[in-house]
Amino acid sequence: MRVIIGYSMRSGSTLLSHILGGHSQIRAYSDISSSWALLRNMLGLRHRGTVCIKPLDLIYLQHRLRPWQGFDRRIWLARDPRDSYLSTVESGYAYLFWRPGRREADIDLGLLARWRRIYRTYLDHPESWYRVHYEDLVQDPDATLSGLLEFLGLPFEKLYPFEPFDLIHGGDYKITQSNTVRRDSRHRYLQQLTPEQMAIFDRELGAEMQALGYPLGRDLPVPAVKRETARIATPHQPPVREPSPARHPAGLASSHGAGE
């Protein structure tokens, strides 16, 4: 069986691929290491057993080749783009294969355009994908992974906590010493984005956020939004130290199956 993970930048896709690779029946390939496996699939060559491929997100920026169509199962990993943005600018990967765009209120509109373009891969044909939310994976990993394995038709195995990442074989440098994920990686935008910045996300990605089950900034209770003086770290500016973010007041959509 051939499985592909669809995602936008800094959505936790490397994490999900790594976790699934811990299953006894899955061989997972991520980023650069996925190139050969992806090429084999495009050439119509079969894989033995279950192969899970998490390609570079560049393939989702174009919609002509559509290599994901040749897979038996397709997983779309969604994450609130406001948190993805914060993670992107802090990680130093913001402009990997992407040029800086025009800035407004310290938000790079070009990066938001990148997310919007990638989202079309999923939103044009949501029935073709099994949607998983990063927030659910972090909050309730066992239930989320159990549903995912059921979708893949594989027997349940305890996959969380996972084996620590190995940088040599590709992984996230932030959790090389960890086998779990911190829950405060969710809803950081409530503490770090200003109302003005929230409004920019509403304007640029509002339809996409709603389609993925995320609330618009204008729909959040006023106390949930950070004060006007909040700032975003850029690749040249260290992040501001803030208290741990409060839990989101409105429940996010749980993991969705194909067609939802």
TrEMBL record:
Keyword Calcium in annotation: no
Entry-linked Pfam families: Sulfotransfer_3 (PF13469)
InterPro entries: P-loop_NTPase
Entry-linked SUPFAM superfamilies: P-loop containing nucleoside triphosphate hydrolases
Keyword Zinc attached: no
Disordered: annotated segments: 230-260
GO molecular function: transferase activity
Entry superkingdom: Bacteria
Signal peptide (residue range): none
Keywords: Transferase
Protein name as annotated: Sulfotransferase family protein
UniProt organism field: Ectothiorhodospira mobilis
